[in-house]
Write a structure and sequence with these properties.
By secondary structure, this protein is an alpha/beta fold. The protein has 21 helices and ten strands. The strands form two sheets. A six-stranded mixed beta sheet has the order 6-7-8-3-9-10. A four-stranded antiparallel beta sheet has the order 2-1-4-5, with helices on one face. The longest helix has 53 residues. Bound molecules: adenosine-5'-triphosphate. It is found in: Cell membrane.
Length: 582
Amino acid sequence: MGTFKKLKQFYWPYRKYLFTSIFFLFFVVAITVVYPIVLQLTIDEVVLQERYSLIPYIAIGFFLIMLLKAIASFFHQYMGDLFGITAVYRLREALYEKLQVLSFKYYDNARTGDLMSRKTTDVEGFRNFISFGISDLIEITLLIVFSLGVMFYYSMPLALITMAAMPFLAIVVYKFDKRVHPAFRGIRKSFGRLNTRVQENISGMNTVKSLSKEDFEVGRFSDSNDNYRQNYLLTSSIWAKYFPVMEFIGNICVVLLLAYGGFLVINDDLSLGALVAFFSLVWYIMGPLMNLGFVINMFSQAKASGERLLEVLEANEDVKENEDAIDAAISGHVTFKDVTLTYIDNDDKALKNITFDAPPGSVIGLSGATGSGKTSITQLIPRFYEAEKGAVLVDGRPVSDYKLKTLRKHIGFVLQESFLFSTTIRENIRYGNPELSEEAIIDAAKRAQAHDFIMEMPMGYDTMLGERGMGLSGGQKQRIAIARAICINPSILVLDDATSAVDMETEFKIQRALKEVMKGRTTFIIAHRISSLKHADEILVLEEGEIVERGTHDELVQHNGPYERIYNIQYQDREQIMDTAT
Ligand SMILES: Nc1ncnc2c1ncn2[C@@H]1O[C@H](COP(=O)(O)OP(=O)(O)OP(=O)(O)O)[C@@H](O)[C@H]1O
C-alpha cells in the first residue's frame, strides 16, 4: 500500500467525488439484491398462490426500482470517473513540473521513450484503478455482504455452505495476486523499453539511414517487441489458469446448494421461491469474487505504474536551490577558484583545479582536444552540474547563492546543435522571453543576421518549423539560436562550437552576428578554429581537464606549446585570419 499512500496527495483532495460515487453505488448494490427477493415473492406469493392479478403491480414496482437503479448508476459512474481524471490531471502536472526541475545528471541516464511511457501509459494505469478499481472493490464487498444478509434470512444452513467456499476462493485470489503483480511490472518495463526503441529510432533516423542500419534496427525492434509479447503472454497464462479454477470452485458450491436446497424444499423446510432466489444470490457472490481477479489485475497494474511514477517524482534533484537564494542583477564577472569536477563517482575527473577570472565584458577562449573539459567549464556556471571541489563565482558570489532562474536567465547559450521547437520562427526566437515586442524580435533577428533569410520565406516570422528545426540549414538554425540568445539579453554568453557545423561563408556571417551579440557581455567561446579564438582576452588551453597553457593569442603563438601546434596545423587558414583581423 506504500505506493498508494505516497501518491495520496494527488487523489485524496478530490475524495468528495469518490464518496459521492460510493454513495450512489450503495443504492445500485442494494437494488441489485432486491431482484432475487422480487423473484421469490413472484414465485411464492403470486405463481404458487395463483394470484395473477398482482402481476401488473409487481411489474410496475420492478420498473420503478430499475429506473432508480439506472439513475444511481449514472451518478456512480460519472463521479468515479471525475475522481480519477481530476486526480491524474494533478499527477500529470506534478510529473511534468518534476521533469523540468530534474538535473542534467538525471537526464544523462534517462531514456526519453521510457519517460514518455511513464507519463502516458502508467498514468492511465493508475487512473483506471482509482476511477473504477476502488469502487469495484467496494461494490464487491457490498454485494457479498448484502447477498449474505438476504441468504441468512432465507436459510442459515444454505448460507453457511456458500460461505464455506470463500476461503478456497480467497486462497486462489491471493496466489493469483502474488504471481500477477511481478508479471505486470514486467509488462510495464518492457513497454517502456519498446517506447525507447521507437523514440531513439525516429530521433536518430538520419544516422540509421546514413549507416544503412535499417535491418539492424528492425531486428532490435523485433527483440524488444518479442520481449513485450513474452511478458504479455506470461501474464495471460496466469490469467487463463486462474479463471477456470475460480469457476470450478463456484460450480462445486452450486452443486452442493442444489442438492441440499432441493432436499430442504422437498421436506418443506424452504420455499421454492427462496431456493430460486438463493441461486441468483450465489452468483451475486461468486461473480464478484471472480471479478476480484479483474480488480486485483487493475490494482497490480496501478501499483506497478504507481511505483514507476514515484521513481520519477522522488528522483533526486541533484542541483537544489538554497532556501535564501537571491534574485540579484548579474553583471557577468565569472571566477573559477581551484575547481574540480567529477561526473560519475569513482570516474576520472573531468576538470582538475581550474582557476581563472573573467571580468564583465571579457572574452575567454577555450581550446583543447575533444573531451578535454571545455564544455564542462561552461556547464558549471549555470549550475547544470555542481563542482566537486573549489568555487565557481558570479559577481563574487558562489553560483549557489543565486536563484536558479536568476542565474540561468543571465546566461545565454549558443550550442553546436541548438534545439528549435516545432512552432513558428517567431516563437522560437522569443522562447526565452515570451513578452518581447515584435520590434525587439526583428531587431534581434537583424543583429543575428537572420532577418533577411526569414523574410525570404513565404510566411516570414510565421513560418512553422518541423521538429528539431527541420526545413532550415545548419547555419540558419544557428542564427535563429543566436537571435534567441540576444532576446534574453544575457550578461554571460557561451558559444559552444557555435560555428563548427557550417561552411566558411556561413561561418563569417555567424561570426559577424556573434560579434554583435558579444558586445558588453562576458563571453566564453569554445572553438577548434583559431580564427574564432584569436580575439579573446584570455585563451585557456585544456588537456584532460587541466589548464596546460593560458594567455592571449599573440602570447600563445610564441609559446611553443599545444596552442602553437594547432595554430601551425591550421596554417593554411592564416591568411583568412589576417583578413578578418583587419
Ligand atoms: N554528462 C556527462 N556525464 C559523464 N561524463 C561526462 C559528461 N559530460 C562530459 N563528460 C566527460 O567529461 C570529459 C570532458 O567533457 P567535455 O564535454 O567537457 O569536453 P569538451 O572539451 O567540451 O569536448 P568536445 O570538444 O568534444 O565538446 C570527457 O571525458 C567526457 O566524456
